UniProtKB/TrEMBL annotation:
PANTHER family xrefs: IRON(3+)-HYDROXAMATE IMPORT ATP-BINDING PROTEIN FHUC
GO cellular component, one term: plasma membrane
Main location: membrane
Keyword line: ATP-binding, Cell membrane, Ion transport, Iron, Iron transport, Membrane, Nucleotide-binding, Transport
Lineage: Bacteria, Bacillati, Cyanobacteriota, Cyanophyceae, Pleurocapsales
InterPro entries: AAA+_ATPase, ABC_transporter-like_ATP-bd, ABC_transporter-like_CS, P-loop_NTPase, Siderophore_ABC-ATPase
Protein name: ABC transporter
């Protein structure tokens, strides 16, 4: 049994369905990338998987049990989530934020421990934030703040990580650094990672499994070589392209056709 899955899942905002009757099984121990155009429902789906948004219809299952029937702390000990646009209380330092990742393990019988300290320090080191640990989040660049939030998710030390656009605000070098980090966490630690990515070629390089979403439904899913096709890019993104092998990894690489956008995009061809 796969640990995380959905059945007939419908997610809505103010009564308007965004995700519709979606059946999805997240492969254990692999990296899954959710791809699709803006507004297709990627982030909404991630929020549903994380129990941040209650289904209108259907279920999200964690280890075979409806995730909404499980205690919040039990879920938080198994699912780490990095939401888009997360905001910390004013005056929080990096270390204070990262330490919040240990909250699910605290109770009146078990207070802060040396293991908590170890995991916080490890998360700071892995994300390159040790030297900035005492800095206020308000004084950091957007990229540094993003790494601090990722460190908090790592400190939570869960077997499943859900990340909504983890490379947001990062320049290309830091994007690759974070994606390499997540890849190592998966390959060396066996963590299941689900992340929303906009950059298709990065998704193909780093993910074992792609889920292409169009208008709240799964258009295609599977290995990048199965999903990343010229037809998929045209139908999902409204873009004519060529798919060629990445010269470094051999994974599919999307090269947009020169000046040829599908009519649905509303952009006039050059």
């Amino acid at each position: 049994m796969n640990r995380l899955s959905t059945q007939k899942l419908t997610l809505a905002y103010e009564g308007t369905p965004i995700i519709r009757h979606l059946d999805l099984v997240i492969p254990d121990g692999q990296i899954t990338a959710l791809i699709g155009p803006n507004g297709c429902g990627k982030s909404t789906l991630l929020r549903g998987l994380a129990r941040l948004l209650k289904p209108s219809v259907g279920q999200v299952y964690l280890d075979g049990t409806s995730i909404f029937k499980l205690p919040s702390k039990q879920v938080a000990q198994q699912l780490g989530i990095l939401s888009q646009g997360s905001v910390a209380p004013e005056g929080f330092t990096v270390r204070t934020l990262v330490a919040q990742g240990r909250y699910p393990y605290q109770n009146w019988l078990q207070q802060w421990s040396t293991e908590d300290d170890r995991l916080v320090e490890s998360a700071l080191a892995i994300t390159g934030m040790t030297e900035l640990a005492e800095r206020s989040l308000d004084t950091l660049s957007g990229g540094q703040r993003q790494r601090a939030w990722i460190a908090m998710a790592l400190a939570q030390n869960t077997e499943i990580l859900l990340l909504d656009e983890p490379t947001t605000y990062l320049d290309l070098a830091h994007q690759i650094e974070i994606l390499n980090l997540l890849y190592e966490l998966n390959r060396e630690g066996g963590r299941t990672i689900v992340m929303v990515l906009h950059e298709l070629n990065q998704a193909c390089r780093y993910a074992d499994y792609l889920v292409a979403i169009r208008e709240g439904r799964i258009f295609a899913h599977g290995h990048p070589t199965q999903v990343m096709t010229e037809a998929m890019v045209r139908e999902v993104f409204g873009l004519d392209c060529c798919i060629v092998p990445d010269p470094v990894t051999g994974t599919p690489m999307c090269v947009p056709s020169w000046g040829k956008l599908c009519k649905r995009s509303g952009v006039i061809s050059l």
